[in-house]
Write a structure and sequence with these properties.
The chain is 38% helix and 15% strand. By secondary structure, the chain is an alpha+beta fold.
Length: 633
């Protein structure tokens, strides 16, 4: 039976809460709708974007159902946001600047120069970026790409680059711009914790959910992730300071570096001749994440708000429009100032009030439950928590300053989930009694409590069909009531997996290009985090790599830790194996493409010592699990 067939209607409690949203906020305000359609030119005639094998990677018609009225199974505020995000096509921002929106999670921007077009943030997928460029050219002519710019280090802003330019064209002189630190963060984020992030991203974006009234309706920041190829071409020009100016094909740009805001490496761009300001992902039509639910380093709302203040001071008086790499632009100098000021105040308020409350002794959970956005800010649609939320952002701020521990020693050494669940269920009178009481709470509409207590039954006995069904039903109701798109997707994906089993990881950003961009230091680090420590406690193996370039790298497995140094390493430790080879061959070994036993067959490879020791060392590593359990033990 499909998930859509098993899904339940909204309960009266959820339906009433959703109806109350319609009375609470100004749904008759059409400004965002007007802005999202302003400058529309055309969209693609074929709604399906396919890869080279003919597999669809994006469907422009997938969200056509949003044109209908909001059902009881969706929060009307999120439904409104999703309708706006689902607008797709080519749009003119101002004369000479165009965006293609709705072709991926993000937007791609085309700035026309004297001879060609400059591309900003070429989406996540190669196929969607190529389709966006083709749509632009179908209206504006076959203008060559004269440059590319990545505003920041998240994959949905660089992954489609090979859909708009080739490595050969970049080698031939087409510049690729990025902020300082771009490559380090773009690569490390997608590799070191990439498997876990991708698995959780499947929940966050609802990639496996059916699209519809009881399923996935969007992610708040955009609709979802495309499922095509993810590429990367290294930047050729690094922007290292605020105020730097560059001219490409006659396009004048002034940069503002904003590290530690929405991404660890990010920048805004002002186009003085167009009186246009690109805010990257630092000011969009929602409250953004300070800690994304897929997982990342906690972002700094204090710095974020300071950089927004700086952007206002530097650029507002010379800007008639602000646009970003998600959502739709804001036109008019005064509206731009109001928009940026409200975004600034939003992040500053969350930061300052969380610090005020934690210094009064409140815990992260207590702060999240009581902190509200000021009414004047809440009245602005773009401050709503469609992607980030007040709840999980305040917890992130607490974590940034105080970490995971709330100071209560009762929480210092808690049992892990399965062991705790078994004890809770036993103390509560057994699974049958817990489920009986949980059904009463379900009928009362206390779905938060249902998922909290029934989770113990599921983790005690994951095969308990009654517990799984009740847990799925309660998660589903929470999803129906969520204003936040990623919360809805998490709740509904949890329900889906409880009913149908694991959905795996439909979209992954750890592509061959990203792996190929790893430095050797990063490759050794990536290998080190795969070592099964307990299995390697008694091992002591040293392998020295001598590159034909003259560089030497030595790695040693000891005490379950794989360390590496440049050079020959400690003189007191003789290598078990010394291998001379070129860097590309070393990379294939470290990435697991070339097995050690095949090294002797490679031309130009020289081996001294016991090659079997390399196989033994690598035998102490294991592979990450892209399908690990989340809602079950």
């Amino acid at each position: 039976m499909s998930d859509s067939a098993r899904s339940k209607p909204a309960t009266s409690r959820i339906a009433s809460a959703n109806e109350a949203m319609l009375r609470r906020f100004p749904f008759d305000d059409t400004q965002d709708h007007d802005d999202s359609r302003r400058g529309f030119i055309t969209s693609a005639s074929d709604p399906l974007i396919r890869d080279d094998d003919g597999r669809p990677v994006w469907d422009l018609d997938a969200y056509a159902f949003l044109d209908k009225g909001c059902p009881e199974t969706a929060n009307p505020s999120l439904w409104r946001q999703s309708r706006l995000c689902a607008e797709h096509g080519l749009f003119e921002v101002v004369e000479g600047i165009y965006q293609v929106r709705g072709f991926d999670l993000s937007n791609v921007t085309f700035v026309e120069g004297e001879t060609g077009v400059f591309v900003i943030d070429p989406l996540l997928g190669v196929e969607t970026a190529a389709a966006a460029l083709a749509l632009y050219r179908s209206h504006r002519g076959e203008r060559p790409v004269t440059g590319v710019l990545y505003t920041h280090s998240h994959a949905d802003h660089f992954g489609g680059v090979k859909g708009v330019v080739t490595e050969e064209e970049v080698a031939g002189g087409i510049p690729v711009y990025a902020p300082r630190g771009f490559m380090e963060h773009a690569v490390s984020e997608n590799v070191f914790a990439g498997t876990a992030m991708n698995r959780r991203a499947a929940y966050m974006y609802g990639a496996a959910l059916p699209k519809g009234e009881r399923g996935q309706i969007g992610a708040g920041l955009g609709q979802t992730l495309s499922t095509g190829g993810v590429s990367l071409i290294a930047p050729t020009v690094e922007i290292t300071d605020t105020g730097r100016t560059e001219t490409v094909d006659g396009i004048r740009m002034v940069f503002q570096l904003t590290p530690g805001t929405e991404a660890p490496a990010e920048l805004n761009i002002h186009f003085p001749d167009h009186r246009a300001l690109c805010m990257a992902e630092n000011a969009t039509h929602n409250l953004h994440n300070l800690l994304t639910l897929r997982g990342a380093e906690v972002r700094d709302p204090h710095e974020w708000s300071r950089y927004l203040t700086q952007a206002i001071d530097l650029f507002v008086d010379s800007s008639d429009v602000a646009f970003a790499s998600h959502h739709w632009p804001v036109w008019g100098r005064d509206r731009v100032e109001t928009f940026l000021s409200e975004q600034r105040d939003l992040y500053a308020y969350l930061h300052d009030q969380t610090l005020r409350l934690l210094n009064q002794g409140f815990t992260a959970l207590e702060i999240a439950e009581q902190l509200e956005v000021p009414p004047a800010l809440e009245r602005a649609w773009h401050t709503h928590g469609y992607y980030g939320s007040v709840s999980h952002n305040t917890k992130a701020i607490y974590q940034r300053y105080l970490g995971w521990f709330d100071g209560n020693p009762a929480h210092l050494w808690e049992h892990p989930p399965v062991e705790a669940a078994q004890r809770y269920v036993r103390f509560m009178g057994g699974a049958g009694e817990v489920l009986r009481r949980a059904r009463e709470s379900y009928d009362e509409g206390d779905f938060r409590w249902v998922v909290q207590v029934v989770n113990h039954v599921v983790f005690t006995d994951p095969d308990n069909a009654e517990a799984r069904a009740l847990q799925a039903d309660a998660l589903e109701q929470l999803g129906y009531g969520s204003e936040n798109g990623t919360w809805r997707n998490f709740f509904l994906t949890g329900a889906l997996e409880l009913r149908d089993g694991s959905i795996g990881t439909p979209t992954a950003t750890t592509s061959a290009d990203i792996l190929g961009a790893l430095t050797l230091d990063q490759l050794f680090d990536a290998l080190a985090i795969r070592v099964d420590g307990p299995a390697g406690w008694d091992a002591d193996i040293t392998v020295r790599w001598v590159l034909t370039s003259g560089d030497v790298h030595t790695m040693r497995l000891r005490n379950g830790v794989l360390t590496h140094v440049e050079g020959a390493g400690s003189a007191s430790v003789a290598p078990d194996a010394e291998i001379t080879l070129d860097e590309p061959t070393l990379r294939t070994v470290l990435l697991g493409v070339l097995p050690p036993v095949s090294l002797a067959e490679q031309a130009g490879v020289e081996i001294t010592g016991d090659l079997g020791k390399l196989s033994e060392l690598l035998g102490h590593t294991d592979a990450p699990d892209p399908d690990f359990a989340i809602v079950t033990p």
